[in-house]
Amino acid sequence: MAKAIISPLIERGEYQPEHILGIVGNSSSITPVMSDLPKGVKVVSSADSLSREVWNAPLKLLAVKPQQFGKIKEVSPLFQSNNQFPKPLLISVLAGITLKNLKKAFPEHTCVRAVPNTPSLVGEGLTGLAWEDDITSDQKNAVRKIFEPISEIFELNERKLDSFLALTSSGPAYIALMVEAMADGAVAAGLPRHLSNQLAHKTLSGTASLLREKSLHPAELKDMVASPAGTTISALRHLELAGLRSALIEAVVLAAQKSRQLAEEV
Length: 266
Ligand SMILES: NC(=O)c1ccc[n+]([C@@H]2O[C@H](COP(=O)([O-])OP(=O)(O)OC[C@H]3O[C@@H](n4cnc5c(N)ncnc54)[C@H](OP(=O)(O)O)[C@@H]3O)[C@@H](O)[C@H]2O)c1
Description:
This protein is α/β, with parallel strands linked by helices. Helices cover 46% and strands 13% of the residues.
């Protein structure tokens, strides 16, 4: 996720690669991480003495797994903040880790909670942002500029971020599961595997474009496709009996609950 956020900023010339220092947990990760990062970005492991340098940077992006959060220990920046120069910024993309958790772990920083999603990799992402109270408007603008190239931004009250994440960050996995299952169905009904996968992808992207470009409510589109006594309504009857709709509702609610729970586990 850190690479997905940083790479477009370097490609657009917003940041010079030599001004970025990446830290990974294990030295064995350095080569694979660097393989698809823009040339000139330095990456070191957390055990390398150079990794302490990151704490002097005005802007940090924290993108470890939520379970690894406790291992990150703040080092006071050399630079002393005052009324004129605010504290350095720390942007966390960790699921479930609250601003309160962040403030406690990084008191020398102004913290921001960001919830991006994987379509950010192709510039089609969604990012939810929640600010710490004492953030300046210049700092807010700096954060917006980081996420704008890859995503549409939604500035939300922090209490809404868990629900935002349950839909937008976890959502690509629910949709990928449905696309895979639909392709499996086509294989079961007699189409070759490669063609089934291709058709399932195209059905997904075409449906998304149709909903967006014609501003259709999903129910309108469903009704357009389901003709009386036809094939689609037979399939929809089965999906209702199997509980697909309520399974999806509960999945989003459970993901939001899990996100809230992660904050209590750190
Ligand atoms: N994937 C998504 O769709 C998505 C969406 C929104 C938010 N997020 C959030 O993004 C975060 C990262 O997810 P991801 O999928 O990008 O995870 P990931 O691929 O596992 O990346 C985590 C990175 O953190 C490094 N790391 C671990 N411990 C470290 C330490 N002590 N010091 C420095 N670096 C350390 C890891 O290095 P090693 O591999 O060497 O340990 C790895 O490079 C998660 O908190 C997740 O909640 C993800």
